[in-house]
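Let's do one together. I've listed all components of the complex below, 229 residues spread over two lines.
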Amino acid sequence: QVQLVESGGGVVQPGRSLRLTCAASGFTFTNYAMHWVRQAPGKGLEWVADTSYDGTNKNYADSVKGRFTISRDNSKKTLYLQMNSLSSDDTAVYYCTRGAAVYAIEEGFDFWGQGTLVTVSS
Amino acid sequence: EIVMTQSPATLSVSPGERATLSCWASQSIGINLAWYQQKPGQAPRLLIYGASTRATGIPARFGGSGSGTEFTLTISSLQSEDFAVYYCQQYNDWPRAFGQGTKVEIK
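Okay, and this is what the predicted structure of the assembly comes out as:
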């Protein structure tokens, strides 16, 4: 079965960096675009970034552009989110989610991890 | 940038009744729209994609409709497990965008 397991969250001081990891299993990771979505405490969902199946194309929300970097290691079936210059506005649960299959039409985000909490606080 | 707007913010419904949730896109997105359900402490779950296609394992009481800029999620007869927050999301363009959510609560 498809599994996405995030890790790397925690408490970090403003201005510092953190790297999130999402380990994928149960499907052919190299065939799918992958996304990060976050949710601040008590708030709605916010799309953060995505990467194409091969990592060549990446897109970012304006709120994180220039500070966050999404990447993937297909040999390890792992997705990453490098977060730099963190601020309190970045405090949220970060979800890894699966996007479109290569050469297929997009059909929403069909599998989600359980999320990892990032708290930015001094 | 496409902005998604959902209405109402909160919907109070009795079990067994019908619930109708609305979602608008600031520009046409065709049928590139998904609906998600989220319960407290859980990750979102995909309900509908392509505006009207139910995801795998989603009960038939969930129905989606619309195209262009106006979309609707209908829950035909609310069950206890359906009380949750529902989000629409466009995937027609970047940045991908979610609506602010509609909370369906027990009346």
